[in-house]
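Handout for the seminar on molecular recognition.
Each group receives one record of this type.
Step one: identify the two inputs.
Step two: read the structure output and locate the region that could contact nicotinamide-adenine-dinucleotide.
Step three: write two sentences on what you found, then compare them with the reference statements printed after the record.
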Amino acid sequence: MPISFLTKRLADHLGRLVDLMSPDRLFVLVDENTHRLCLSRLTEGGTRLAEAHVITIGATDSHKTLESLAHVWKSLSENGATRHSLLINLGGGMVTDLGGFAAATFKRGIRFVNVPTTLLSMVDAAVGGKTGINFNGLKNEVGCFRESEAVVVDINFLLTLDQQNLRSGYAEMLKHALLESDRMWAEHLRFDLDNPDYAALLSMVEQSVGTKQRIVDADPHEKGLRKALNLGHTVGHAFESLALEKGQPVLHGYAVAWGLLCELYLSAKHTGFSTQQMQQTAAFIRRNYGAFAFGCQDYETLYAFMQHDKKNQGGEINFTLLGGIGDIRLDCHLTKEDVFDSLDFLREGA
Ligand SMILES: NC(=O)c1ccc[n+]([C@@H]2O[C@H](COP(=O)([O-])OP(=O)(O)OC[C@H]3O[C@@H](n4cnc5c(N)ncnc54)[C@H](O)[C@@H]3O)[C@@H](O)[C@H]2O)c1
Ligand SMILES: [Zn+2]
């Protein structure tokens, strides 16, 4: 699946891509925010994109639902979409996940292109072929693997993205850097998130996508190596669930950053990860993501969330840890006391 990284003229590039694919009808899926902030960048060039039928759904994960999906199917159906039509998903991970699933299922599958507009979707959600919706109170409960025809990354979309969502996406980049190399990791710790240098960020996004793509290519259906992408997520998802339960939801990437901090502590303690690199990463995370509000009274609940993670088998929690930067250790098992220690470590720095 081709991925392009643009510096200018998104409309021209995408217009050429559409001409090459020559669909009979063209659709663009947006949410309320990307309709307002991003859509005009697609339609400004006098290409076929200007005639596309625009489908709009509500913004944020609360709209990654069967109702929104049905709305997309209905709009496609009522506006003459056929198996030769093309859907362009213009938005964050919510739009690329739901749009990808809508395209994968409509008339047994039509083509789609992802144009990610959040940092998280650029480096993670838009790449790798996972699509889906939330269902029955569970995240990504229904979905399928389906690759987009292309991903077109235009860093300029990030100019309207708020600081929190920028930081949220950056946590996944930090994870990719930890899975890749010392050089990439050091570059990520030097980056100033308060005053982002977007030119530098573009090249880092490109490397980050490269890491995800390499891992996904080696293991598209998550039988082995793809579990590496779960680094920071075993503990991170538990924080996300606890925050949701308390009615104080946190952005996914913030939970991942705190999860990374705990899992690097565990890596330093159990799989030989450098204590110095762990401390340096922890300092970066504390500085940029602050502290997660929780206490020892939450430990059992957090542990129970980790046990219920859908990535586990046979009741034991599967951690992805590191022996060093780029040295991935899958399916590590730890005692409850070890996990509680890592939660202490996160709270001590608070
Ligand atoms: N498929 C995968 O492999 C994968 C991987 C990671 C995450 N995800 C999914 O991605 C979703 C999270 O993605 P997200 O963080 O992009 O969330 P999101 O799509 O909800 O976007 C976050 C917010 O930013 C707004 N927004 C989007 N682009 C903007 C722009 N350029 N300027 C200003 N605002 C903009 C959105 O409208 C929304 O309010 C979750 O549903 C998650 O499950 C999927
Ligand atoms: Zn994630």
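Reference statements: The two ends are 43 Å apart (CA to CA). The mean pLDDT is 95.
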